């Protein structure tokens, strides 16, 4: 019996690369075709993180409700991104705290249920890009810069449609958008991580 576990582990180690190779998506630019892609709400989210009073890092998420990506591999600098996020469905680890964040003390989600990111420029460098754009939260629109990486492309085996994915990071200040001004002891700088998935039409 003592040889069963090592043998199983060895088989798992051998099988792992094979399983990974069956993934339909990969960062292969030649798989991308020109067109307009719709955002995939189930696989697109913004994770935000900020310093909570010097005690810990607080994180939460917003999902996407709608949006699009228009691009042409022959003219990558002309790409356009427009994505709307659901502020009124923000997610944190406590339901009670989520309601507090959605209150008028912070996002006032009843009045401003969504946020929107619209690109104004794209500078492509291989599989990476710097995206400049306008971010609107609580009717306050400010410029934002995102460092994006092409994550993968391929035919989704479920939908049979071409999928494209990106990961991006950036920083904003919550004070620029009037979020939680009454809580100055909470960090003003917010780190953003965006995982964005798009599906061919």
From TrEMBL:
Signal sequence residues: 1-20
SUPFAM superfamilies per record: YceI-like
InterPro entries in the record: Lipid/polyisoprenoid-bd_YceI, TTHA0802/YceI-like_sf
Pfam families: YceI
UniProt name for this protein: Polyisoprenoid-binding protein YceI
Keywords: Signal
Species assigned in the record: Sphingomonas pseudosanguinis
Residue ranges of domain Lipid/polyisoprenoid-binding YceI-like in the record: 36-199
């Amino acid at each position: 019996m003592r040889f069963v576990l090592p043998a199983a582990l060895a088989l798992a180690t051998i099988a792992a690369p094979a399983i990974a190779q069956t993934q339909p998506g990969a960062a292969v630019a030649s798989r991308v075709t020109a067109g307009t892609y719709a955002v995939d709400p189930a696989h697109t989210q913004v994770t935000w993180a900020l310093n909570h009073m010097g005690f810990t890092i607080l994180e939460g998420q917003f999902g996407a409700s709608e949006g699009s990506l228009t691009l042409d591999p022959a003219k990558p600098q002309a790409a356009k991104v427009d994505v709307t996020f659901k502020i009124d469905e923000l997610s944190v680890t406590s339901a009670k705290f989520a309601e507090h964040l959605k209150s008028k003390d912070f996002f006032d989600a009843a009045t401003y249920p969504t946020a929107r990111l619209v690109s104004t420029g794209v500078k492509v460098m291989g599989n990476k890009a710097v995206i400049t754009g306008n971010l609107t939260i609580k009717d306050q629109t400010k410029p934002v810069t995102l460092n994006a990486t092409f994550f993968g492309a391929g035919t989704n085996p479920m939908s049979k449609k071409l999928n494209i994915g990106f990961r991006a990071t950036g920083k904003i200040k919550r004070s620029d958008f009037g979020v939680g001004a009454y809580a100055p002891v909470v960090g003003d700088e917010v780190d953003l991580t965006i995982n964005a998935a798009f599906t061919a039409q």
